[in-house]
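Problem statement: downstream parser choked on a complex file, so we are re-checking the raw output for the magnesium ion run. The parser issue turned out to be on our end (a line-ending mismatch), but while we're here, posting the original submission so the record is complete.
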Amino acid sequence: MRPAAVLTDLDGTLLEHGGVLGEPVRLAIANLHDHGIPVVPLTSKTEVELRDVLRELDAGGIGSFENGAGVVGPGGIVVSEKAIPVAELSARLGELARVTGFRLTPASELPTAEICRITGLPEERVPAMLARGFGLPFLAPEGAAEVLGRSAKQLPATRLTRGGQFWHLSGNHGKEDAVELLCRNGLVSRPLVGFGDAPNDAGFLALCDVAVLVPRASGEVDPDLFAAIPAGRIAPFPAGRGWAAAVSDLLEEAKR
Ligand SMILES: [Mg+2]
């Protein structure tokens, strides 16, 4: 099978830990480019962050931002009908704070130094990380999880997730919605190969014709991801090195 496009998560999958684009990945992308196969990132990053990555990758200029909230292509952006603008999300966060009685603090109200401490991002990358159009990261007090989860279920078409210290409020969309948007707008065609390393990649990997599971730094595939995509191939190494090796195998197979 010759893939028509490669859909990929970024952090811990295509990018090394720390967000670095490694040399094996650059070579693999150049190899895919020679075969006319675009590399399409599907990420939780903002549109601003995604555009920076797209420029650095130089691999087709197509991608999806904010967990399937929208896609970027040569003709501009297309926003998912499930995406909720951040002003509306702010109103819903206010409603959540009111009904739960918790102090819920949007990331945009935190000092930059505090965001750097929580996310590990360098200061100069904080503005791009905060430039969310369709998602609201926030902090909640310890022990708020149960009540917060229950109260969020009362909000219409809203998704509440937790990643590290930040909670995240958004429309009810995921990377799987990006696949549908990309196909419907003619930005990618099948067969699709997908690469991911975490449970929030499982939805889009299930829609790909071939799914490649990229191991964590420990060398093990995330057990929840493996349980969701048991027929997935497993990349031979963690992060970008494994990504590049799996791409090379796929291109070899496509020749046969
Ligand atoms: Mg990842």
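For whoever reads this later: Residues 175 and 201 are 7 Å apart (CA to CA).
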